[in-house]
Amino acid sequence: MVFPLNFLFVLFIWLTPTKPVSDATIRQVVRTALRTGDAGQLSAQFARTIELVIDAEKVEFSSIQATHAKLILRSFFRKYPPHSFNFVYQGASDRLRYSTGTYETNGQTFTVYILFRQSANRQFTINSLHFRRES
User: Fold this and answer.
1) Based on the number of CB atoms within 10 Å of its own CB, is 131 exposed (0-12), middle (13-18) or buried (19 or more)?
2) Which structural domain range is residue 110 located in?
3) Coil, strand, or helix at residue 109?
4) Is residue 5 included in any domain, yes or no?
5) Domain with 47 in it: what CATH number?
6) Considering the domain boundaries, does residue 3 fall inside one?
7) What is the pLDDT of residue 10?
8) Where are the alpha helices (DSSP H) in 23-64?
């Protein structure tokens, strides 16, 4: 009798619709994660693979697993702890959302570019993340 109950529970969880992550929600989560330097919270919003560029660290991956990107970001946030982060520009087109922001740390400023893509299940995930150090 245990097997059918477990099966029904798993089936219920699997069939329960998840609430789509809206672009406003994901941008708020990203803003908070960048303001606090929380690589875990930020990487939870990644697609399975993302494009990651951090010019100050000579990191340039056109496709990297989200778990590896999380480790790289953790190191970046330790080396460049956030003092502030603010979105400067936000735009949209069809199933894409894009944002540009300013990340400030220890007297340095990075321009951050983020591309969000809406998947078939209507959830937005981060597909591209760039940190470019300003001169």
Assistant:
1) buried
2) 19-133
3) strand
4) no
5) 3.10.450.50
6) no
7) 41
8) 23-36, 39-43
66 belongs to a structural domain: yes
- Scanning the structure block, which residue is given the tokens 């190191």? 75
Contact between 103 and 54 (Cβ < 8 Å): no
As a whole number of Å, the end-to-end CA separation of the chain is: 67
- The model's pTM: 0.81
User: Looking at the chain, how many residues does it have?
Assistant: 135
Distance CA 87, CA 89 (A): 6
Whether residue 13 lies inside any domain: the answer is no
Amino acid of residue 99: S
Spatial CB neighbours of 112, under 8 Å, sequence gap ≥ 6: 34, 85, 99, 100, 101, 102, 103, 129, 130, 131, 132
| Positions in the chain whose pLDDT score sits under 70 | 1-23
Indicate the SS3 state at residue 135: coil
Would you state the pLDDT for residue 11? 40
Two tokens, residue 14: 């699997």
> How confident is the model at residue 119, as a pLDDT?
85
Looking at the structure of the chain, the number of domains it has is 1
